[in-house]
Amino acid sequence: MPTGRRDGAIQIGGIYVFPDRIRTLIEAVHGVSEASVRPFVQGSAEQTRLKAFVVPTHCDNTEALEAKIRAELSVVTKPVEQPLHYSFGTALPRNAMGKYIDWPLETHEANSTG
Protein backbone atom coordinates (compact mmCIF):
# COMPACT_ATOMS: atom_id res chain seq x y z
CA MET A 1 0.00 0.00 0.00
CA PRO A 2 1.41 3.45 -0.93
CA THR A 3 2.41 5.82 1.85
CA GLY A 4 2.99 9.52 1.27
CA ARG A 5 3.69 11.39 -1.92
CA ARG A 6 6.74 10.60 -4.00
CA ASP A 7 6.98 14.12 -5.45
CA GLY A 8 7.66 15.75 -2.07
CA ALA A 9 4.50 17.85 -2.09
CA ILE A 10 2.74 18.78 1.12
CA GLN A 11 -0.70 20.27 1.48
CA ILE A 12 -1.03 23.73 3.04
CA GLY A 13 -4.43 25.36 3.12
CA GLY A 14 -5.73 22.99 0.46
CA ILE A 15 -2.87 23.80 -1.93
CA TYR A 16 -0.04 21.46 -2.83
CA VAL A 17 3.30 23.07 -1.98
CA PHE A 18 6.70 21.71 -2.99
CA PRO A 19 9.34 22.58 -0.35
CA ASP A 20 12.18 21.60 -2.73
CA ARG A 21 10.91 24.13 -5.29
CA ILE A 22 10.86 26.85 -2.64
CA ARG A 23 14.38 25.85 -1.53
CA THR A 24 15.58 26.17 -5.14
CA LEU A 25 13.98 29.62 -5.45
CA ILE A 26 15.63 30.78 -2.21
CA GLU A 27 19.02 29.44 -3.31
CA ALA A 28 18.67 31.46 -6.54
CA VAL A 29 18.57 34.73 -4.58
CA HIS A 30 21.85 36.65 -4.73
CA GLY A 31 23.54 36.36 -1.34
CA VAL A 32 22.29 32.85 -0.53
CA SER A 33 24.75 29.95 -0.49
CA GLU A 34 22.31 27.16 0.39
CA ALA A 35 18.96 26.66 2.07
CA SER A 36 16.64 24.09 3.58
CA VAL A 37 12.85 24.36 3.65
CA ARG A 38 10.65 22.27 5.93
CA PRO A 39 7.04 22.22 7.06
CA PHE A 40 6.09 22.98 10.65
CA VAL A 41 2.81 23.04 12.53
CA GLN A 42 1.72 26.47 13.71
CA GLY A 43 -0.59 27.35 16.57
CA SER A 44 -3.43 25.58 18.28
CA ALA A 45 -5.30 25.12 14.99
CA GLU A 46 -2.34 23.01 13.85
CA GLN A 47 -1.92 24.70 10.49
CA THR A 48 1.02 23.51 8.44
CA ARG A 49 3.31 26.24 7.13
CA LEU A 50 6.89 26.43 5.86
CA LYS A 51 10.10 27.53 7.55
CA ALA A 52 13.49 28.09 5.94
CA PHE A 53 17.07 27.83 7.12
CA VAL A 54 19.42 29.97 5.02
CA VAL A 55 23.20 29.98 4.77
CA PRO A 56 24.26 33.39 3.42
CA THR A 57 27.30 33.74 1.17
CA HIS A 58 28.47 36.43 3.58
CA CYS A 59 26.77 37.02 6.91
CA ASP A 60 26.74 40.78 7.40
CA ASN A 61 23.02 41.68 7.34
CA THR A 62 20.61 38.75 7.58
CA GLU A 63 17.60 41.07 8.06
CA ALA A 64 18.23 42.66 4.65
CA LEU A 65 18.78 39.25 3.07
CA GLU A 66 15.53 37.95 4.57
CA ALA A 67 13.66 40.98 3.20
CA LYS A 68 15.21 40.37 -0.23
CA ILE A 69 14.22 36.69 -0.19
CA ARG A 70 10.67 37.53 0.89
CA ALA A 71 10.35 40.16 -1.85
CA GLU A 72 11.61 37.83 -4.58
CA LEU A 73 9.40 34.93 -3.44
CA SER A 74 6.33 37.17 -3.30
CA VAL A 75 6.64 37.72 -7.06
CA VAL A 76 6.79 34.04 -8.07
CA THR A 77 4.90 32.14 -5.35
CA LYS A 78 1.53 32.07 -3.63
CA PRO A 79 1.38 33.29 -0.01
CA VAL A 80 1.01 29.73 1.35
CA GLU A 81 4.23 28.73 -0.44
CA GLN A 82 6.25 31.44 1.29
CA PRO A 83 8.07 30.45 4.49
CA LEU A 84 6.74 32.15 7.60
CA HIS A 85 9.97 31.78 9.58
CA TYR A 86 13.59 32.23 8.54
CA SER A 87 16.67 31.12 10.44
CA PHE A 88 20.24 31.90 9.40
CA GLY A 89 23.53 30.20 10.11
CA THR A 90 26.94 29.34 8.74
CA ALA A 91 25.91 25.78 7.76
CA LEU A 92 22.70 23.81 7.38
CA PRO A 93 21.81 21.92 10.57
CA ARG A 94 23.17 18.36 10.60
CA ASN A 95 23.44 15.60 13.17
CA ALA A 96 26.65 13.85 14.22
CA MET A 97 26.35 11.51 11.23
CA GLY A 98 26.11 14.43 8.79
CA LYS A 99 22.42 14.01 8.00
CA TYR A 100 20.24 17.09 7.69
CA ILE A 101 18.09 17.70 10.77
CA ASP A 102 15.25 19.96 11.81
CA TRP A 103 15.91 23.24 13.62
CA PRO A 104 13.94 25.22 16.21
CA LEU A 105 11.96 28.28 15.18
CA GLU A 106 13.39 31.70 15.84
CA THR A 107 11.63 33.84 18.41
CA HIS A 108 10.41 36.50 15.96
CA GLU A 109 7.41 35.80 13.75
CA ALA A 110 6.57 37.26 10.38
CA ASN A 111 3.34 39.07 9.70
CA SER A 112 1.90 36.94 6.95
CA THR A 113 -1.50 36.00 5.80
CA GLY A 114 -1.99 33.02 3.62
Q: What's the short story on this structure?
A:
The protein is an alpha+beta fold. It has a domain at 10-88: ANL, C-terminal domain (GMP Synthetase, Chain A, domain 3, 2-Layer Sandwich). It contains two helices and five strands, in the order ββαββαβ.
Observed structural traits:
two-stranded antiparallel ribbon, 27% strand, GMP Synthetase, Chain A, domain 3, single chain, alpha+beta, 21% helix, disordered C terminus, 114 residues
Overview of the structural elements:
With 114 residues, the protein is an alpha+beta fold. It has a domain at 10-88: GMP Synthetase, Chain A, domain 3 (2-Layer Sandwich), CATH 3.30.300.30. It is 21% helix and 27% strand. The protein has a 3-stranded mixed sheet. The protein has a two-stranded antiparallel ribbon with strand order 1-2. The radius of gyration is 14 Å and the shape is globular.
List the helices and strands and how they pair.
Elements: E1 10-12, E2 15-17, H1 19-27, E3 32-42, E4 47-56, H2 62-76, E5 85-88
Parallel strand pairs: 4-5
Antiparallel strand pairs: 1-2, 3-4
